[in-house]
Amino acid sequence: MHLSEKIKPFKYCPACGSGDISFGDMKKIGCRDCSFTYYHNVAAAVAAILEYDKKIVLIERAKDPGKGKLDLPGGFVDPKESAEEAIKREIKEELKINLRELRYLGSYPNIYKYKDVIYHTCDLFFYSKIDAIPTDFDKTEIEELILVHPVNAYIELCKLKILSFRYSSSR
Q1: What mean pLDDT comes out for the span 124-133?
Q2: How far apart (Å, rounded) are the C-alpha atoms in residues 146 and 124?
């Protein structure tokens, strides 16, 4: 698929408003009138495999993309933030808990589609044990928390076609 098909919102140059834009390789958009160049680079995302009582915590998403589907808690890395800081922040925001020990599992490529834009991501996976199931979680992001046996967690997440999760869980 050509970049112009992936990034439909770009019909005009964001710098000068010209419609004379070109789509280069997989990530470059340029304006022929003002020479503005935009690079649609890979976005870093983090996810946590949280273990409680030999089970894995999955979230049911409360909003799109993927409303009603199961997922791992996590999100995107903010500017000037490390992956470790990002996963701790995301877990604190979503689940209202602090992670103590964190083990890095690996990073894997993925594709994330949101509002007609396809983002290539680099998903970084972490593992941590937690002492209790959060009860005061962010209900604007999470419909409910679900505890599942690790094999069932793998099956549910593979149904979502989270290719990067399949890579991380096979290690």
Answers
A1: 94
A2: 22
Question: Which value, in Å, is the radius of gyration of the alpha carbons in the chain?
Answer: 18
Contact 73, 57 (CB under 8 A): yes
Beta-carbon contacts of 5 under 8 Å, excluding residues fewer than 6 positions away, are none
Q: Are residues 60 and 142 in the same domain?
A: yes
Which residues partner with 148 through β-bridges? 56
Using the Cα atoms of residue 90, residue 134, residue 67 and residue 48 in order, give the sign of their dihedral.
positive
The separation between CA 64 and the C-alpha centre of its own chain, rounded to angstroms, equals 12
pLDDT over 70 (residue 162): no
Question: Which range marks the domain in which residue 12 is found?
Answer: 3-39
Contact yes or no for 143/64 (Cβ under 8 A): no
Q: Are residues 85 and 163 in the same domain?
A: yes
Place of tokens 């490529």: 109
**Reported confidence tier of residue 7, pLDDT bands at 50, 70, 90:** low
Percent of the chain with pLDDT over 70: 84
State how many domains the chain has.
2
Q: What is the CATH number of the domain that holds 105?
A: 3.90.79.10
* Same domain flag for 28 and 70: no
Asked whether residue 35 falls in the same domain as residue 67, the answer is: no
